[in-house]
Design goal:
With 145 residues, the protein is of the alpha+beta class. The protein is 19% helix and 14% strand. The chain has one domain (26-136). It has helices spanning 48-58, 97-100, 122-133; strands at residues 38-42, 63-68, 71-76, 117-119. A hairpin with a 2-residue loop joins strand 2 (63-68) and strand 3. Helix 1 (48-58) packs antiparallel against helix 3. Bound molecules: iron/sulfur cluster (2 copies). The site of one iron/sulfur cluster has 9 residues, from loops.
Amino acid sequence: MAQIYTSSKIPQTKPDRDTLPEGTNLCDYCNGKCCRYFALAIDAPTEWADFENYRWYILHEHAAIFTEDDSWFLLVTTKCKNLGDDNYCKNYEHRPDVCRIYSTERCEYEDNWVYDKLFDDSEQLYEYAEALLGPKNGAPLRSQR
Ligand code: SF4
Ligand code: SF4
């Protein structure tokens, strides 16, 4: 049987950032996690048309939608073309501003975080919409078909 973890029990495979010697570069212990995806803020869906668009988004490979504090985001898990095999930026001098303002102080180095909501399957999002809005176009609930 698969092990079930609560958020506080998800195993941390990296050393705790607080235990690293002063002056240590946190990125030396990371696989370039922040360079392996991008996330875009999207409007919280309020009607079926929104959900249908979002279902289309996540029908694509490597795309998912997550929420955090009632904000919605499109997540695309894809490696930046500038990320080298050593997990460092190959074009550091010319990296975009979004990379320049990002710092290890508040980065997602830790692996023990969870999403508020995560949708990585269009059927799952459909069922969530149905629970929230009721049947689409007055159709019966899919669970009753
Ligand atoms: S900034 Fe944080 S998440 Fe990004 S590579 Fe460094 S340690 Fe990893
Ligand atoms: S440009 Fe460099 S720092 Fe920015 S995401 Fe790509 S590899 Fe990471």
